Amino acid sequence: MQAPSKRLVLAVVGPTASGKTKLAIELASALNGEVIACDSRTVYRYMDIGTAKPTMEERKGIKHHLLDVVDPDQVYTAATFKKDASVVIEDLFSREKLPIVCGGTGLYSRVLLEGLNIPEVEPDEILRKELSELVRREGVEALEKLLEKLDPPSLARIEKGDVFRLVRAIEVSQKLGPFSQVATIKSPDFDVIWIFLNVHNREILREAIVKRLVIQEQDGVIEETKAISQRFGLTQALLNSVPYKEYLSYLDGKMSLEQAREEAVKHNYQLARRQIMWFRKSPKSLDQKKLTFYIDESTEAERLSESMREILQEDRA
Fold it and tell me: What radius of gyration do the chain's Cα atoms show?
């Protein structure tokens, strides 16, 4: 099947463990596409098992972009992602390939697909050291209180405990004014169809999270966590990522393995709930289409295939 004639991007989004990657690969195979990972964790090299990064076998020959971009001790921002992903999209258009953006990082999808422009501010190392010391003395709650004074809307959008993004929002807000106000929206120069994977029964999602964690342990995620921390130290990429941060606590003797598993499941489920709420509200633009499919309905796969065929037929008309 040939790719659509106009500039069209598919976005496969939804909560963790909902099957986004598998669906994106199937769509890419059927629609002459390639996959662009939209995930703030899979950009890191060596963080493979814990991020559920697709193996070469799972990719089924479909090219994936923006996996393994930087080392775990490097900084990779949403603005950088937008630049890199935009270059990939233009390349795919030039080769008449269908870009399929796949992932659960809401901010990444918004900057790329909804045109959110985040101002670039050079990192302030002095401020970062001061904030790091503040966290050491008073905990991450001190950063949250500081950002609440500077820019409450930004605090509401940041995942609880995400030190890196809290620091970045404080950094921008202090230099340019409230982060949420200096960011602007400019619609992208391509059409977007959002495919949002959701669930009616969230217990099914919890079961999928538990099952995936069991497989990750069998595949060696604890050993992976140890190897990365020994090579790169306790980086923000590790400390802000489930299940790495939980297994780090286990490896440090701060909790038992069973406690680490329970915490990983709890935090991943909390993440899934936030992702559902985020993508339920996206896209902000009314001229972008969104199709919602429920993974706990057996008829959804057939509905999805039919919907995509209809959309592509409309596109060619």
Answer: 20
Q: How many domains does the chain have?
A: 2
Residue written as token pair 């939980």 = 246
Same domain, 146 and 172: yes
> Does 172 share its domain with 191?
no
Query: CA-to-CA distance for 62 and 37, rounded, in angstroms?
Result: 12
- Residue by residue, pLDDT tens for the chain (317 residues) are 444 447 999 999 999 999 999 999 989 998 899 999 999 999 999 999 999 999 999 999 999 999 999 999 998 988 899 999 999 999 999 999 999 999 999 989 999 999 988 777 777 878 988 988 898 899 889 999 999 999 998 888 776 777 777 888 898 889 888 877 877 888 899 999 999 999 999 999 999 999 999 999 999 999 999 999 999 999 989 998 999 999 999 999 999 999 999 999 999 999 999 899 889 888 876 578 888 888 876 555 556 656 666 665 565 45
Q: Whose CA is closest to 204, among 138, 121, 106, 300?
A: 300
Residue 25 lies inside a defined structural domain of this protein: yes
Query: Does residue 108 form part of some domain?
Result: yes
